[in-house]
């Protein structure tokens, strides 16, 4: 199991939106420029996030994207799930012998627990406090 660039960049977009949650809508171009990412690729990703109900677009001269909920109400798990689907460590877990199936089930649960209990607010805070020695413990 690997998180693709789609998942990583999507999380980057969502963290940027979370950091500026109370501000005006943010254009993908400004996020792409700030993060040195392809705006075209971000357009594909934001479409998936919009379809999942995590962001909405605001049209017009001062338009852009905003979160549909507060940053503390959106988990990293929701974002990754919308972009990557299931995060099973292996395919066809039911075909494994009982001991290995138990192991892979526990690994999947641990990953999901971390992602589901880490909010965009947590991640935005981590980025803003990164230079101040803030440590994030799970």
Automatic annotation (TrEMBL):
InterPro entries: TR_Rrf2-type_CS (IPR030489), Tscrpt_reg_Rrf2 (IPR000944), WH-like_DNA-bd_sf (IPR036388), WH_DNA-bd_sf (IPR036390). Gene3D superfamilies: Winged helix-like DNA-binding domain superfamily/Winged helix DNA-binding domain. The keyword Protein transport does not apply. GO terms for cellular component: cytosol. Keywords: DNA-binding. It comes from the Bacteria. The keyword DNA repair does not apply. GO terms for molecular function: DNA binding; DNA-binding transcription factor activity. NCBIfam families: Cys_reg_CymR (NF047409), rrf2_super (TIGR00738). This is HTH-type transcriptional regulator CymR.
């Amino acid at each position: 199991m690997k998180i693709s660039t789609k998942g990583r960049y999507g999380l980057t977009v969502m963290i940027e939106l979370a950091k500026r949650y109370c501000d005006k809508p943010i254009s993908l171009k400004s996020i792409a420029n700030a993060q040195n990412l392809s705006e075209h690729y971000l357009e594909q990703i934001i479409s998936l996030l919009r379809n999942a109900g995590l962001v909405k677009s605001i049209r017009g001269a001062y338009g852009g994207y905003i979160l549909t909920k507060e940053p503390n109400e959106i988990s990293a798990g929701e974002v990754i799930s919308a972009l990557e689907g299931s995060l099973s460590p292996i395919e066809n877990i039911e075909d494994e012998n009982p001991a290995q199936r138990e192991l892979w089930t526990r690994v999947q649960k641990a990953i999901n627990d971390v992602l589901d209990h880490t909010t965009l607010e947590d991640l935005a805070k981590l980025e803003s406090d990164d230079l101040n020695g803030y440590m994030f413990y799970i």
